[in-house]
């Protein structure tokens, strides 16, 4: 197997296989966009590093503890990686003379041009190839059944070991602890090879060339070109066209079967619409002028900068009914001390009103437009890990 640089990424990667297998030209289209990262991805990387360390340590390897070098580490990560190692050890313990490989680089370029990837854990024992993928994310539930990413890892492992071991069965497991999900899918090695030769290789060759037909589906959500893709726009606008149909030929009320049909499409339509809004908003924050739209400052609420100090001042002025489980909110505090004016006098140095987050609105909006520099300041802090986004 040829040497692969550690930090290199495959063009037709295993992680994006569902997208390029269903929409081959998306691979070359997405190539024009920068690869982005997120706090969620960084957290997942830390979880993988900790899991790798623990598995290697459990196998008796002389490895250095990585905990002090992790940017994201907490009790939850400690617990989930412990359970992951326990699962791996159970697989090993039930096998006879297993061969175990951790973070194994795998080459599947026999079927996918320049294709390679890294499997979290590979175990060969008793005629079965086990491939385990540790996923730390919470956003999307990942199942192993017919999962193309898992199949590509399995193919890479088969190509590496099938001539050494007599492998009849391939077992692919997604271990996703924060979704309480352990999903396993099995197929024969012969069936996997057949899929690779008859379906994977022809499609991968087309995708590598940037050819084929655009196809829209759930996989669009992970495409870097999703906001500007014309095929996706045309696909989603088909639903909107219904509103502009000739009213003479339509009943006044929707039939139940029509509503049922729309229900299956609305989620994709709203996701596409939000992607368009997000793209336009981010471009506006970088200076793009959209005809008929402007950036404005959104609304914000006043807040107290130091709750303990505010409580001390209020108590000294005879106000004691200022707590529930914590200090009351500003509106309720105003009522408790005799009005907003009185509260402002008491806590003048402790009450602030932060700038509202920018928003892209029609020019008819009465709010004053803001400058790009001002808008950029709103993005100076990264989102918290608790916030959900499509980049998880």
Strand content: 5-15%
* Total domain units: 3
Radius of gyration from the alpha-carbon trace, in angstroms: 27 Å
Overall residue-averaged pLDDT value: 82
The CATH class assignment of the largest domain is Alpha Beta
Roughly how much helix do the residues carry, as a percent range? 40-55%
Structure notes:
By secondary structure, this protein is an alpha+beta fold. It folds into 3 domains: 17-209, Lambda Exonuclease, Chain A; 221-283, no CATH class; 303-352. 40% of the residues lie in helices and 14% in strands. It is built from 12 helices and 9 strands. The protein has helices spanning 17-22, 26-30, 39-58, 75-93, 148-161, 189-209, 230-240, 256-285, 307-316, 330-337, 340-346, 372-377; strands at residues 99-107, 116-125, 128-134, 169-176, 181-188, 293-297, 303-304, 351-352, 358-362. The strands form 3 sheets. It has a 5-stranded mixed sheet. A hairpin with a 2-residue loop joins strand 2 (116-125) and strand 3 (128-134). The chain starts with 16 loop residues before the first helix and ends in a 15-residue tail after the last helix.
């Amino acid at each position: 197997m040829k040497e692969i640089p550690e930090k290199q990424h495959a063009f037709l990667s295993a992680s994006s296989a569902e997208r390029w297998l269903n929409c081959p030209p998306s691979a070359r289209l997405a190539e024009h966009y920068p690869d982005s990262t997120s706090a969620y991805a960084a957290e997942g990387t830390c979880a993988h590093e900790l899991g790798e360390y623990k598995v290697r340590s459990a196998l008796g390897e002389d490895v250095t503890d990585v905990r002090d070098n992790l940017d994201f580490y907490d009790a939850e990560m400690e617990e989930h990686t412990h359970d992951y190692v326990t699962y791996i050890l159970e697989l090993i313990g039930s096998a006879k003379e297993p061969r175990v490989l951790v973070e194994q680089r795998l080459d599947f370029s026999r079927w996918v041009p320049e294709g390679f990837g890294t499997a979290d854990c590979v175990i060969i024992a008793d005629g079965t190839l086990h491939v385990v993928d540790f996923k730390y994310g919470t956003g999307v539930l990942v199942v192993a059944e017919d999962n193309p990413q898992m199949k590509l890892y399995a193919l890479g492992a088969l190509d590496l070991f099938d001539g050494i071991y007599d492998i009849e069965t391939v077992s692919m497991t997604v271990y996703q602890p924060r979704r309480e999900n352990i999903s396993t899918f099995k197929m024969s090695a012969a069936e996997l090879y057949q899929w690779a030769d008859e379906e994977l290789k022809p499609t991968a060759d087309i995708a590598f060339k940037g050819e084929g037909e655009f196809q829209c589906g759930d996989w669009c959500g992970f495409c870097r070109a999703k906001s500007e893709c014309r095929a996706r726009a045309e696909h989603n606008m088909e639903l909107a066209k219904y509103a502009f149909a000739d009213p003479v030929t339509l009943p006044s009320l929707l039939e139940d079967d029509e509503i049922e049909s729309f229900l299956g499409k609305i989620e994709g339509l709203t996701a596409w619409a939000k992607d368009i809004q997000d793209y336009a908003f981010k471009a506006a924050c970088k200076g793009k002028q959209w005809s008929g739209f402007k950036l404005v400052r959104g609304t914000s609420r006043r807040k107290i900068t130091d709750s303990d100090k505010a409580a001390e001042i209020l108590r000294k002025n005879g106000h004691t009914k200022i707590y529930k489980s914590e200090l009351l909110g500003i509106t309720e505090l105003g009522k408790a001390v005799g009005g907003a004016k009185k509260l402002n006098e008491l806590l003048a140095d402790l009450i602030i009103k932060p700038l509202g987050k920018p928003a892209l609105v029609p020019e008819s909006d009465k709010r004053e437009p803001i400058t790009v520099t001002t808008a950029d300041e709103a993005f100076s802090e990264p989102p918290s890990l608790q916030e959900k986004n499509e980049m998880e």
